[in-house]
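User:
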Amino acid sequence: MTSALLAVADLTKDYGTGRRALDAVSFQIHTPQLVGVIGSSGAGKSTLIRCINRLVEPTSGSVKLHDAEITSLRRNDLRAMRRQIGMIFQEYNLVERLTVMQNVLSGRLGYVGLWTSLRYRYPPEDIQAAYALLDRVGLSGFENRRADALSGGQRQRVGIARALMQRPKLLLLDEPTASLDPNTSRQIMELVSNVIHEEQMPAIINIHDVGLAKACCDRIIGMRDGRKVFDGPSSALTNQRLAEVYGSFEAFTEQQAEPVEAAQ
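Assistant: Predicted structure:
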């Protein structure tokens, strides 16, 4: 068997309060695919995503990206490794006063010097790549618009383009559709799925909407109380397996019915 694109082994996170947010979670990704992570609030979904790129420091365990161990890297090496991991957030994390183009080009900050980034004098090839990415995510012609003038769905598309500007080997998405309306959420998920298959990279997405996860994800990991309780193709996520993830099928249906404020 070929080596994994991403290998997570016995990943554990304990907090000082005595709470164990992750309990020896292990999985591997061998092919470019979109992996959805589902579970109730507090199940460990966001902690898992953030421990992979060490935005949260794991207590123990191993994370390897293309056989490079992430968990033992020192600060400078970790900074270099994070260039290879694109991160997309629920709250967009754009610089509101900057233009769409400036936000997208900020995905190259790890590769250009500070003076270049402050003066936005990026190499011509980076600027060309940014235009191509804006076209790819459906924002051609938006390059000079300020980020704070965009809708929620448009902001998330900028976030995707910015992450792709890093030319990453792995894409991590932390509830990117949580504040979007259902139609926009599906568009964003379909965009992410298309991009990661075209780029031949793995992606892991925390997602609240199980129906959307089943429709767009190749594989689903179910989390409960910090443990992995399901890992398989979307088609295998039966009502019985959902009950195991959420405690009961009634708990699952109640959580899915919770209203979500939509960003138009």
